[in-house]
Design goal:
Layout lengths: L3 E3 L12 H9 L2 E4 L2 H10 L6 E3 L5 H13 L4 E4 L12 H9 L4 E3 L6 H8 L6 E6 L6 H6 L7 E6 L4 H12 L4 E6 L7 E6 H10 L6 E5 L5
Parallel strand pairs: 1-4, 1-5, 2-3, 2-4, 6-7
Antiparallel strand pairs: 7-10, 8-9, 8-10
Helix pairs in contact: 3-4, 7-8
Bound molecules: S-adenosylmethionine (SAM).
The site of S-adenosylmethionine (SAM) has 24 residues, from β7, β8 and β10.
């Protein structure tokens, strides 16, 4: 039966893909990709020659209807993002919601995403957590942080290296400089780093050593 698959792809190490993901990418009629050049590298690595179509935040509003029509006409389509799980700080939600509305079957494979290894690796409680994704760069930023002051669950943020110190400083203002946290950088890559300490320690560390690469910040929740 035709359906939409959401396929998680590696966040750094090309070996971090499941056998089933490779099998499905090789057997679907079409792969929707955030950046077709990026996905081509992955497909070449696994000798997959399925046709690719670009699907990103700038064209997804226009293309969801035609994608759904293709599935309703009998095609099976896979959506991937540049890295990790589609829909997690990446395009995916809009297409899934539209498929659900049209009663098109949707199946998301379990697989790579940056937030879970960062959370588990942090050593902070992972029985309950909230995923905050990227904080807004300007408008609404302060409100979001203020809303987290009484949060008791461990918090997960995605961040760019250029904003890391600013974010750590602002989190220290809202949550307290002694709050425990962990900065995970370049997960699954050669220079992976998991730096654990208080928000003030981490801020000072990265002020002296400006970071590069991709970053997840994990922050302990408020003590009950
Ligand atoms: N869909 C992806 C997922 O499932 O994790 C997230 C995509 S989002 C556009 C990219 C952000 O994810 C990066 O800015 C960083 O915060 C985080 N990220 C992705 N890969 C990472 C890695 N290897 N190490 C640390 N953080 C990573």
């Amino acid at each position: 039966m035709s359906k939409l698959f959401l396929i998680p792809t590696p966040i750094g190490n090309l070996k971090d893909i499941t056998f089933r993901a490779v099998e499905i990418l090789g057997s679907v009629d079409l792969i929707l990709a955030e950046d077709t050049r990026q996905t081509k590298k992955l497909l070449n690595h696994y000798n997959i020659s399925t046709p690719l179509q670009s699907h990103h935040m700038f064209n997804e509003h226009k293309s969801v209807e035609s994608i759904c029509s293709k599935i309703l006409d009998g095609q099976t389509i896979a959506l991937v993002s540049d890295a990790g799980t589609p829909g997690i700080s990446d395009p995916g939600f809009l297409l899934v919601r539209t498929c659900v509305e049209k009663e098109i079957p949707v199946e998301t494979l379990p697989g790579p995403t940056a937030l879970i290894p960062a959370l588990v690796n942090s050593g902070l409680p992972c029985d309950r957590f909230c995923f905050e994704g990227f904080l807004p760069p300007k408008k609404g930023r302060n409100k979001r942080m203020t809303g987290l002051t009484d949060e008791t669950r461990t918090m997960v943020f995605y961040e760019s290296p250029f904003r890391l110190v600013k974010t750590l400083n602002e989190l220290a203002i809202h949550l307290g400089p002694d709050r425990n946290a962990c900065v995970s950088r370049e997960l699954s890559k050669i220079f992976e780093e998991n730096n654990r300490g208080t928000l003030s320690y981490l801020s000072e560390y990265y002020t002296n050593k400006p970071p590069k690469g991709e970053i997840v910040i994990i922050v302990a929740g408020k003590k009950d």
